[in-house]
Amino acid sequence: MSTLKFKANPKQKIAFKALFDNIHTDIGYGGGAGGGKSYVGVSWVWMMCNKYPGVRYAFCRQELKRLKQTTLNSFFKFIADYEIPEDQAGKYNAQDGVIKFANGSEILLIDLSYQPSDPLYTRLGSLELT
């Protein structure tokens, strides 16, 4: 896999520096729509899934429909923007809500809407996410 030359805005540059500096353990990235938060997130998760075999990440939003319209769209935009080869892009299974990579890594798409039968979100506890 070749090295990507990420074209980042100033906030994205700060976020990427923190993600890869081995110093920060918590990173907050806020701002309005169009600030590049999802793009940073999806590109970083893609990098981790390609670098480390067998890891498992998740893209989450309150509504699965909104997740597909925003975060998943940003993921596909990132793949297209950097012309990621098909064998490294991850294969999206819409029915299962998962992106699978050749090295066994996965990205799950998770609906975080409140469910009265699971007020403490215990359904997330057994997902074995990285």
What would you note in describing this structure?
The structure is a single chain. With 130 residues, the protein is of the alpha+beta class. It has one domain (10-25, 33-124). 35% of the residues lie in helices and 14% in strands. Strands 1-4-3-2 form a four-stranded mixed sheet. Strand 3 and strand 4 form a beta hairpin. Helix 2 (37-51) crosses helix 4 (71-81). The protein is globular, with a radius of gyration of 15 Å. The protein starts with 9 loop residues before the first helix and ends in a 19-residue tail after the last strand. The model has no long low-confidence stretch (mean pLDDT 88).
* Largest sheet strand order: 1-4-3-2
From the N-terminal CA to the C-terminal CA, the straight-line distance is 22 Å
Strand content: 5-15%
Summarize the main sheet.
Answer: 4 strands, mixed
Helix/strand/pairing category: alpha+beta
Rounded mean pLDDT is 88
The shape is globular
Unreliable parts: none
Number of strands: 4
Rounded to an integer in angstroms, the radius of gyration calculated over CA atoms is: 15 Å
Helix content: 25-40%
In total, how many domains does the architecture comprise? 1
